[in-house]
């Protein structure tokens, strides 16, 4: 069986909606362009203006702790760096992430929307180098859709939307869990090469329904009971730059 790249997805603002791409150019040592480029700081972290570079995931509003973020639909315009926020299909805020006034408008919206969750004013920041991923090393995450279907059929007994997993690259065409044999190996996707570093555990954020913003599935728990582990994503580093596109074959070395 041959694996195929079926979707490319980036998350311009950490914790917010994903954005589907038909193709993108990968660079060695970097994440997908503009993936987790921005983040929304909370509490004491929002007052820290000295820290540069990567920051701990706990510094940001994320679905692990702020599930109601999933009830927002965000749209990112790469050319203008504008972030449009909708709720129930209605636009509720808009601002340019590259301009102080635009960030202020967005921060004021989030302060009202997330009032009472964490004290203080939220602050939007941009990663000057790399991305605000869950690991300090810029990475790409992969999901085998066949493994997710196995979870649906054998363990969850209900559909599990792939958006819950917030993966960058969605693959199909191989057996369930075959990707676990790729750890430590190199993959070729289109014109790029990636080294698979490790499998990742599910988190509470994966329990959040991407449409309702409600945590209605205990994915880590049911996977531990059914498989003895909760690892369904792979983390990979880009070792050779090149263009990838939906439909490309995925070939392990």
Pick out its properties:
globular; 14% helix; seven-stranded mixed beta barrel; 253 residues; 15 strands; alpha+beta
Task: Briefly summarize what is shown.
With 253 residues, the chain is an alpha+beta fold. The protein has helices at 100-113, 145-156, 219-227, and strands spanning 3-10, 19-21, 23-26, 38-41, 72-77, 82-87, 90-96, 123-126, 140-144, 169-172, 186-189, 192-201, 231-240, 242-245, 249-252.
Molecular structure report:
The protein is α+β, with helices and mostly antiparallel strands and 253 residues long. Helix content is 14%, strand content 33%. It contains three helices and 15 strands. It has helices at residues 100-113, 145-156, 219-227; strands at 3-10, 19-21, 23-26, 38-41, 72-77, 82-87, 90-96, 123-126, 140-144, 169-172, 186-189, 192-201, 231-240, 242-245, 249-252. The strands form four sheets. Strands 1-10-9-13-12-11-15 form a seven-stranded mixed β-barrel. It has a three-stranded antiparallel sheet with strand order 5-6-7. Helix 2 (145-156) crosses helix 3. The mean pLDDT is 95.
Topology, please?
Blueprint lengths: L2 E8 L8 E3 L1 E4 L11 E4 L30 E6 L4 E6 L2 E7 L3 H14 L9 E4 L13 E5 H12 L12 E4 L13 E4 L2 E10 L17 H9 L3 E10 L1 E4 L3 E4 L1
Parallel strand pairs: 9-10
Antiparallel strand pairs: 1-2, 1-10, 1-15, 3-14, 4-8, 5-6, 6-7, 9-13, 11-12, 11-15, 12-13
Helix pairs in contact: 2-3
